């Protein structure tokens, strides 16, 4: 290991320490990227790595492949929350759970997973689930920590990976040219459902042990909880309210449109003139796919406004508020994580990883899942982890005869697991707020189920099953 590689390792260790101590993740990643690039240039005797980091900052900051899907998806999520449509979807899905206590733990995880597919945002999923799930599980006698762990696992285990609009899939598509609908229909269901099934089974068993070990003090509302966390505009109604099936269907609108427009159905053809006009007589599929996601979200907003005319007046404002939130809290993480990834790649860590895989090809799939998991746990972002690290595994996958899109599915699943067990991720912080618990407690409770699920995915992948 040379001096530049050593500097990169020290930067990674320093970043982990500072994030654990509560420093802003974006500040830490950007500073680590700049320091690593500066050290690489000093060792190499030429100015190359630092300009690359700056270039990637500017390019990613303005890259519509991330800005358009993320910001429009968050805008749509805000509109759903404002109109109450997502709440009606949650009420519809949780209705069967109200009479069967022993199914609450797996049921809550499954409901969170299902809601996260159309909503995409894990934090928004947790926010719309919380006002329904927390009183439901409290009435059944569950402690706040168990409720928070179930809520966190369901909202963040990886449901969004089954939505063609998920930004993680665009990262893989930019390398492989495999469209996001094809990834969703062909590559992701196996790993995602294995991860879900194993993690759900483990947390179900653990929850019984947690509840037996918890005392009355853990079940009581903490004294510092002066009131409920911020809730959706529609959250004041009774959990037993009547479900509006039309509102419950609105969150699914963009999802249905994207599946109809993509392979293998191709049942809906959106003219290029609406999305990405042809250049030199050829369609830019990457640009077309990205903007098609944005268009689907906009259609969802229009449908939400039509279904809830009483709230339509403020929907455009809510959309742009959500888009701003997406840029400030999600795109910013992707930008800084991309810079960090480029810096450590320039320092030679990617090459070292390639050499390790070349010496032991059997390590490709375990590393493709667990390295992003570790990065996601530190950064708190599954999207940032996928964007930063997938490129490290793309060429080794080609070199050793692996399908790089299937390897991308492992990276996505690992990144989602890492984000879920991160005490600094937005969804963990939200679940902790909703259940008056510590984010570190929730992160510890979901860690074992997620590690078990990821290990199962890797084992089955290596066996050729998924």
TrEMBL record:
GO cellular component, one term: plasma membrane
Signal sequence coordinates: none
A Pfam family matched in the record: DcuC
Residue ranges of the region described as Disordered: 220-239
Entry keyword Nucleus: no
Keyword annotations of the record: Cell membrane, Membrane, Transmembrane, Transmembrane helix, Transport
UniProt topology in membrane: Multi-pass membrane protein
GO terms for MF: C4-dicarboxylate transmembrane transporter activity
InterPro entries named among the record's database cross-references: C4_dicarb_anaerob_car, C4_dicarb_anaerob_car-like
Ranges that cross the membrane: 100-120, 132-155, 192-210, 245-268, 288-307, 319-344, 356-378, 446-464
Subcellular location: Cell membrane
PANTHER family: ANAEROBIC C4-DICARBOXYLATE TRANSPORTER DCUC-RELATED
Family membership: Belongs to the DcuC/DcuD transporter (TC 2.A.61) family.
Record protein name field: Cryptic C4-dicarboxylate transporter DcuD
Taxonomic source organism: Urbifossiella limnaea
